């Protein structure tokens, strides 16, 4: 088994450097006999038009850089402003070309120097016996197009051809120049997810006794993301190593094994994507519900979450597979039926996540759970930031395409279109997931955080609720130990400052300490301080306020009792 793998890897390494062209099939029966692709200029960069044996008749090939499309074709003399693109007998009569140009493309420029336009006419005769290659050198990086047009007195009978176009780039591989950066992008993204997963697993191992349920789901999501990115890289790596017809996803050379593997990777990546989306929505929903942080369980609601997740995955997978079948020309009519269920499950997830997050945040805010509330507010900020970014991104894309036009968009953006359509959203997902994982990362306090509530400290806030931990008969409250000596000292000092022995002071019915001979004087509060302590038996909190009156003639110490 090991020997077989060594042979396979060696064969791949030997073949890989020889593969360096993006291949597109051409055929006389195709409605569109033109193909375009970006080409990165290099020493051997070129565009080859290859015709297979048994091709017949006469054909003309035209290779040009997209910016020169404006000079291809001439306006008809009848004033219709319609362009004629081929030199035909009618065009000769209109003096748009000469007899020697019959079958060639019309170029609205007498001298082609300084342009990228190259055209050739080839006559196959009754039948082409050997494979013929028409090569066109590429000196400048650009977006190049190839048009192949048959010409003859009876095109349906005499002109028949099959072949392919090789876009030979400066890099080695069969991927289009516009798609080739994805090979490196998903490779680095796989390594990044792998590094994050390793760091996460190390934290899980370090705090294995503190892991809560939601962190297990984060671990599963992280593993799935790493696998998905690895499969995306494998998909582009396989397509880079083999000549694949992207219109039908089959081998150019007709190898059944290559066709089968190409379609396997296509289906696998299209199934992993809805799996990742479903698991991500599931994770967001249970986190928004406070699972593992606010409450240890969400009861029977988890079954509804499981059901919605399964439905979303099924609808997403069927839609993705349906799109794949459309690409393979197998089926297309029934794919639209999966758009509406997918939109329904997606909307249900969005609404449920937002409502749950709002309810959890409000619950924590009312109970004065500031630390936990900050976690969910951070999650809310991450989601709002992501939605805002996607909205601005879509708006920017719509404006960009509408301003430059669809055709010019393909021509102008081919170098970075992969980043606009795939890279930005993939990076956004990575950043959002990394921030959520960091917020819910394993620590030494996870179980304590999940199983306990904070002690509220803001007593004057309406609706505040306080929790007092049960203290045994022989236990002392830590807060009482810290506060009691200071309170006693302040109480004694306040009493001594009155200048009257303690026996002349008394407690009033409202809890004040007054001088016995000055009970009816008006109180003027110039300064006050609060003293908080806990009684030994009733565990109540009291605050003492000291009032100063007219040159310290009368001072009062107020005692307010608040039962918790």
Could you walk me through the main structural features you see in this protein, from its secondary elements to its overall organization?
With 564 residues, the chain is an alpha+beta fold. The protein folds into 3 domains: 2-168, Jelly Rolls; 185-401 and 424-451; 478-562, no CATH class. The chain has 13 helices and 17 strands. It has helices spanning 2-15, 89-93, 155-158, 181-206, 213-241, 256-288, 301-327, 339-366, 370-404, 406-412, 417-439, 446-451, 478-497, and strands spanning 21-27, 34-39, 46-51, 57-65, 74-75, 83-84, 118-125, 132-137, 142-151, 162-168, 244-245, 250-251, 505-507, 512-515, 533-534, 541-549, 554-562. The strands form 5 sheets. The chain has a 5-stranded antiparallel beta sheet with strand order 13-14-17-16-15, covered by helices on one side. Strands 1-10-3-8 form a 4-stranded antiparallel beta sheet, with no helix packed on it. A 4-stranded antiparallel beta sheet has the order 2-9-4-7, with no helix packed on it. A hairpin with a 4-residue loop joins β11 (244-245) and β12. α7 runs antiparallel to α8 and α9 (370-404) packs antiparallel against α11 (417-439). The relative contact order is 0.08.
């Amino acid at each position: 088994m090991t020997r077989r793998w060594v042979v396979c890897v060696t064969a791949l390494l030997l073949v890989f450097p020889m593969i360096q062209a993006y291949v597109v099939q051409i055929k006389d029966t195709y409605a569109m006999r033109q193909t375009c692709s970006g080409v990165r200029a290099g020493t051997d960069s070129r565009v080859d038009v290859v015709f297979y044996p048994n091709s017949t008749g006469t054909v003309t090939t035209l290779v040009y850089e997209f910016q020169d499309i404006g000079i291809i074709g001439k306006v008809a003399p009848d004033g219709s402003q319609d362009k004629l693109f081929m030199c035909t007998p009618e065009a000769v009569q209109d003096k748009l070309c000469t007899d020697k140009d019959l079958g060639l493309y019309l170029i609205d420029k007498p001298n082609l120097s300084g342009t990228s336009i190259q055209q050739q006419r080839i006559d196959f005769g009754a039948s082409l016996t050997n494979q013929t290659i028409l090569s066109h050198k590429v000196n400048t990086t650009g977006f190049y197009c190839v048009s192949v047009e048959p010409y003859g007195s009876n095109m349906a009978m005499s002109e028949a051809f099959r072949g392919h176009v090789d876009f030979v780039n400066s890099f080695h591989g069969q991927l289009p120049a516009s798609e080739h950066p994805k090979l490196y992008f998903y490779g680095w993204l796989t390594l990044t997810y792998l590094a994050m997963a390793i760091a996460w697993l190390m934290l899980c191992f370090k705090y294995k006794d503190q892991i809560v349920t939601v962190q297990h789901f984060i671990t599963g999501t992280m593993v799935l993301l790493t696998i998905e990115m690895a499969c995306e890289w494998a998909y582009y790596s396989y397509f880079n190593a083999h000549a694949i017809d992207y219109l039908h996803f089959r081998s150019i050379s007709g190898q059944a094994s290559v066709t089968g593997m190409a379609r396997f990777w296509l289906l696998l990546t299209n199934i992993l994507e809805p799996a990742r989306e479903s698991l991500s929505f599931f994770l967001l929903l249970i986190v928004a519900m406070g699972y593992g942080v606010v409450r240890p369980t969400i009861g029977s609601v988890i079954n509804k979450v499981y059901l919605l997740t399964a439905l979303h995955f099924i609808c997403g997978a069927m839609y993705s597979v349906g799109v794949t079948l459309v690409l393979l020309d197998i089926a297309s009519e029934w794919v639209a039926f999966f758009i509406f269920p997918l939109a329904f499950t997606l909307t249900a997830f969005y609404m449920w996540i937002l409502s749950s997050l709002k309810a959890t945040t409000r619950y924590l805010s009312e109970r004065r759970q500031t630390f936990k509330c900050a976690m969910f507010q951070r999650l809310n900020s991450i989601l709002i930031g992501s939605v805002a970014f996607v909205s601005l991104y879509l708006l920017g894309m719509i404006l960009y395409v509408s301003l430059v036009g669809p055709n010019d968009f393909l021509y102008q953006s081919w170098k970075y279109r992969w980043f606009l359509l795939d890279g930005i959203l993939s990076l956004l997902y990575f950043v959002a997931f990394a921030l959520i994982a960091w917020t819910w990362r394993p620590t030494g306090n996870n179980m304590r955080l999940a199983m306990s509530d904070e002690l509220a400290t803001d007593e004057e806030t309406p609706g505040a609720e306080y929790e007092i931990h049960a203290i045994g008969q022989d236990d002392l409250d830590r807060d009482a130990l810290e506060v009691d000596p200071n309170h006693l000292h302040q109480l004694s000092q306040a009493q001594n400052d009155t200048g009257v022995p303690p026996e002349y002071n008394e407690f009033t019915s409202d809890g004040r300490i007054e001088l016995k001979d000055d009970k009816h004087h008006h109180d003027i509060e110039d300064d006050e301080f609060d003293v908080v302590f806990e009684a030994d038996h009733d565990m109540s909190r009291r605050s003492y306020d000291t009032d100063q009156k007219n040159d310290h003639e009368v001072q009062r110490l107020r005692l307010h009792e608040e039962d918790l």
